[in-house]
Design brief:
Elements lengths: L1 H10 L5 H36 L7 H5 L2 H24 L3 H27 L1 H18 L5 H14 L59 H7 L5 H11 L1 H37 L1
Pfam families: Tetraspanin (PF00335)
InterPro entries: Tetraspanin/Peripherin, Tetraspanin_animals, Tetraspanin_CS, Tetraspanin_EC2_sf
Membrane topology: Multi-pass membrane protein
Length: about 280
Amino acid sequence: TMMNHRRRSNNFTYVSSCVKYMIFMLNFVFWLFGGLLIGVGLYAFVDKWQATGSVRVENVYDVVLNISLVMLIAGGVVFVVSFAGCVGALRENTCLLKFYSLCLLVFFLLEMGVAIVGFVFPHTLQSLLEESFTDKIIQTYREDPDLQNFIDFGQQEFKCCGLSQEGYLDWGKNEYFNCTSPSVERCGVPFSCCINATDISSGLVNIMCGYKVQMLPVSEASKKVWTSGCIEIVRSWAERNLYTIAGIALGIALSQLFVIYLAKTLEGQIELQKSRWHS
């Protein structure tokens, strides 16, 4: 009986396999997702590199507005952090688990910061975004096909044109749509600004529907194109759906805190187990 008792007490562990494999499985899914993001981002980046011969990365804006680079960076971060969570849980490595929960805490605090600024100062955030990004995005519209598709999608979905308070007149900052431009598109706006871009009879997109719109006063222009800037439209859309957005944000925040709690629990259990071995 003495032997049996000793064998059973040696097999006893403070480390809950439920917590351990929960962290492992959760991070394994995110690890795969991070890998997928890296793959897609890399494919898009190489594709653009081959198409244009160069990718400009001179300042923060070039990185933020390059969709493939954003995917690569986000994928890389997710990949590394979830890998630390996976291996840390599986190998019961407290060092990796500490790194993992610290990263989650940093993400959590950053998200809280953005959320607070968005909820408390929506107009300040709007003008900040308008000042920072309007010129850059409008100017690079024709240079970056990914960004161009993204802007067209945004303008069609949110029924807006341009980015700032200027609305459709923002497009005057683009060298192709500028009124002094030698191009046929001068004084125009992209087709994605048009209220009826698709020709009903042929089902094709009329690319010329936005030509010469900048010459018209708002009352005339608003019959042909959306005239409000996208950042303002998105802000008012967010205000209308405030409870839904807040609910989702809260859900994400709480689940992050729960995972941090799990990682900390596992860490504590491993420490207990180690002290038991040393004693």
